[in-house]
Amino acid sequence: MAKKNVEIKSFYYITHINNINSILLEGILSHQNIEDKGINYTAIYDKSIVSNRKLKQTPEGKSLWKYSNVYFQPRNPMLYRVVLEKGVDNIAVIELDRQVLNIPGIYITDGNAANDITEFYDYKSGISIVSKMWETIKAQWWNSLDGSKRKIMAEALIPDVIPPNLIHSIFVAKHNIAEKVKTSLINKNIPVIPEPTMFFYPAKQYQITSNLFLAEGDMFFSNMQTLTVSVNTVGIMGKGLASRAKYQFPDVYVVYQDACRRKQIKMGKPYLYKREASLDDELMDEPKDFTLPNGNKWFLLFATKRHWREDSDFNGIDEGLAWFTQNYKTEKVKSIAMPALGCGLGNLEWKDVGSMMCKHLSKIDINATIYLPREKEIPSEYLSKDYLLSNKQTS
Predict the structure, then answer these.
(1) What distance in Å separates the CA atoms of residue 112 and residue 13, rounded to the nearest whole number?
(2) Which of 39, 131, 315, 316 could pair covalently with 5 via S-S, beta carbons 3.0-4.6 A apart?
(3) How many of the other CB atoms lie within 10 Å of CB of 292?
(4) In what order do the strands lie in the sheet with 226-232?
């Protein structure tokens, strides 16, 4: 049985917030159209991207520069790139009605249109291809090994202009930016929506001390130098954050298995993998003409249980955190992101783990962020500074 085409409800265009009012007046213009009309705008693309897209042609021999490009999934390597380069406060994502598909002469691609292996399709064939790729396109992460980094950037290419009446809403990363955009908008009927996770930004943050924070969001997009992965001591990455690390960073999995064989990962003694490859290079669209602020990521492989079948060991986690606070300076850790160790699949409770983690991490003098469990909502009383720094633990 042939797979039914997905119902596409929206498309997304990435731009600088300075361009929003011009877009509401003129529509979303192709770059060639912008140049021909002499419209002043704030660019978000560097020279390497401009060059790639100008040189790349559609099947009918036209430059990509003559098309407006919109994405099926805005949370993609291009958005990650421009957020890094331009700053999250300066970027907006414009949501467009699916009626853009009715504009004559469109192409649909099966990935980043500037990539050499990306294919171009007419409307009918393209929707069929995109439907087959939908799980990849709507995923929350990607890597370059399996092609998902290219495929998640599948595009619809619209010749010349997308009319402003097809604009549905505008997304930004923060509430204060949303208010700023709303006050300057020439069309007050367009909703401006803060959507932090779309921009790889925590949905919520809570400050516990001057350099210790709690966050709701995706730890693997943290700007901390070192990311912590909860593991067992037998070398199996089966579920949860460990499974994510195994998929997205295969080298981390190889190092983890080797460390387990050498008995270098133990309860009470995490293993620090000082990875030299740039995580930002892997996540963002390439190539780049700018210096990454926090490219190299290290991984702290933190044993929360001995065997993957067991529940997490509260005392073992306590000992591991004590080891970290005693050794982070000599190991040259500059900042640290940690999940709620042992919660979720480990069956420990945040009300116990949170207080214990904050007791240790409040002692260090580098920035630290604890990413809260996603499995269930945490009562506000267990997120308060008073509770978490009281050193009261209920286990």
Answers:
(1) 14
(2) 131
(3) 14
(4) 204-207, 212-216, 367-371, 335-339, 226-232, 298-305, 271-273
pLDDT tops 50 at residue 395: no
* Residue 258: CATH number of its domain: 3.40.220.10
Tokens of 361: 């991490």
Residue at 5 is within a domain: no
In the 3-class helix/strand/coil scheme, how is 78-121 assigned residue by residue? HHHHHHHHHCHHHEEEEEEEHHHHHCCCCEEECCCCCCCCCCEE
The reply to whether 218 and 163 lie within a common domain is no
pLDDT digits (tens, 9 = 90+) for 182-240: 999 998 899 999 999 999 999 999 999 999 999 999 998 998 999 999 998 887 776 67
Dist CA 257 CA 332 (whole Å):
23
* Same domain, yes or no: 142 and 234: no
CA 142 to chain centre: 9
Please tell me the distance from the alpha carbon of residue 323 to that of residue 267, in angstroms, as a whole number: 10
Say how many domains are in the chain. 2
Low-confidence winner among 25-29, 166-170, 216-220, 305-309 (lowest mean pLDDT): 305-309
Does residue 1 lie within any of the structural domains? Answer: no
Q: What pTM was computed for the model?
A: 0.90
Provide DSSP, 263-298.
T--BTTB-EEE---SBHHHHHS-S--SS--SS-B-E
Instruction: Give the residue numbers marked as catalytic.
Output: 53, 155
Domain that residue 375 falls in: 204-388
C-alpha–C-alpha distance, residues 118 and 109, integer Å: 7
Say whether both 261 and 215 belong to one domain: yes
pLDDT digits (tens, 9 = 90+) for 115-136: 999 999 998 999 999 999 999 9
Cβ contact 95:169 at 8 Å: yes
Ranges assigned E (strand) in the chain: 10-16, 28-29, 67-71, 91-97, 107-109, 120-121, 155-159, 161-162, 167-172, 192-194, 204-207, 212-216, 226-232, 271-273, 298-305, 335-339, 367-371
The residue behind tokens 């267990």 is 382
Domain boundary among 139, 174, 199: 199
Residues in the chain: 395
Pairing of strands 120-121, 107-109: antiparallel
